[in-house]
Design brief:
Blueprint lengths: L2 E6 L7 H14 L4 E6 L1 H4 L6 H18 L7 E4 L5 H10 L4 H5 L2 H7 L8 H15 L5 E3 L5 H17 L1 H6 L11 E3 L34 H10 L18 H14 L3 H8 L4 H27 L2 H30 L6
Parallel strand pairs: 1-2, 2-3, 4-5
The structure holds tryptophanyl-5'AMP.
């Protein structure tokens, strides 16, 4: 059975990269799959969070999901901390994953920086919680941006090692050859890695100190126009063919964003704008970005004005998620050999 799972951290500043690389893809997936979309608040606290802002940030991601077009009745939408089985399975996976595996994670190395002694243990174990998010539902497909690829590979390794280490019990209990599936990353389309508007070699990120580096989902039309106009470019006009974008990361990024917003191949963008100056192209890009994002921002404002309604959606989703997750955890207890409540 095919099941989609993905998550977004409620760490503020949801941006165009999150939308094009992930959330817009979540919307597409709901047509053909059962989907579970999670606001991963337990992941957010691996780095310091202001508790007075976190609730609103959780509601904002939820609102973004719904405003983008995810139907919370057809799918399951909830926040991670309401379903305790995520943390429970993550503990088991902490005992499956190896220190060496986690030490190789580039995101940990980047986020911990030089002062690794001072990074939280949670930041180090981040990927085992992510594996638990996916596997507690035995999800098979995970739509994510390119930056999550290594974490998904680790999830596959954890599933495989669990299946191997407990193969006898898994078979004995009638689960067949493997209990957990190998979740497949879906990293597709023209927008798997949107770059900073200030530096085409850096990923667009929620934590970049410069707000001009990203287009936030809540930016108004004027702000979007200003950010695009100020976006770094080079002096050459746009090329007519993709080869002409080589060595021009900023031009490449803006063409990629345009292609993703229009849902067309990058070459088609060059067919239309090859030879044009950036001032012309940026004008068209502003119109396109505003056309896509303004309705989402408006709907997010409407939804977040009623936190009670959002909290009810999250509670309903958490109840349905827990029904699946608790079944998995009971299986896991039996596989591991724990004594459990009958
Ligand atoms: P997060 O919250 O950093 O980002 C959410 C999603 O947005 C994608 N993304 C991007 N895509 C394209 N260009 C960018 N510049 C860009 N920046 C972010 C991310 O790849 C992601 O898909 N670890 C995850 C959250 C998570 C998760 C999970 C995901 C926790 N558990 C289980 C999938 C399955 C993260 O930090 O995403």
């Amino acid at each position: 059975e095919e099941l989609v799972f993905s998550g977004v951290q409620p760490t503020g500043n949801l941006h165009l990269g999150n939308y094009l690389g992930a959330i817009s893809r979540f919307v597409t997936m709901q047509e053909n799959y059962s989907c579970i979309y999670c606001v991963v608040d337990l992941h957010a606290i691996t780095v310091p969070q202001d508790p007075r802002l976190l609730k609103d940030q959780i509601r904002e991601v939820t609102a973004a999901f719904i405003a983008a077009g995810i139907d919370p009745k057809k799918n399951i939408v909830f926040n991670q901390s309401q379903v305790p089985q995520h943390a429970e399975l993550a503990w088991v996976f902490n005992c499956v994953a190896r220190m060496g595996w986690l030490s190789r994670m580039t995101q940990f190395k980047e986020k911990a920086g030089k002062d690794r002694e001072n990074a939280s243990v949670g930041l180090f174990a981040y990927p085992t919680l992510m594996a638990a998010d996916i596997l507690v539902y035995r999800a098979t497909h995970v739509p994510v941006g390119d930056d999550q690829k290594q974490h998904l590979e680790l999830s596959r390794d954890i599933a495989q090692k669990f299946n191997n280490d407990w193969a006898e019990m898994i078979a004995e209990l009638g689960h067949g050859a493997e209990y957990f599936p190998q979740p497949e990353p879906l990293i597709q389309g023209p927008a798997t890695r949107i770059m900073s508007l200030r530096d085409g070699t850096k990923k667009m990120s929620k934590s970049d100190p410069s707000d001009y580096s990203r287009i936030n989902l809540t930016d108004n039309a004027d702000t979007i126009a200003q950010k695009v106009r100020k976006a770094k470019t080079d002096p050459e006009p746009l090329p007519g063919a993709l080869e002409g974008l080589e060595g021009r990361p900023e031009a490449d990024n803006l063409v990629g964003i345009f292609a993703a917003l229009r849902d067309m191949p990058r070459q088609s963008v060059l067919d239309e704008f090859g030879g044009a100056q950036f001032s012309t192209f940026k004008g068209a890009l502003v119109d396109l970005a505003v056309e896509t994002l303004a309705p989402i921002a408006g709907e997010m404002r409407r939804l977040t004005a009623d936190p009670g309604h959002i909290d009810a959606i999250l509670a309903d989703g958490a109840g349905r998620a827990e029904a699946i997750a608790s079944k998995t955890m009971n299986d896991v207890r039996d596989i591991l050999g724990f004594v459990r409540r009958p």
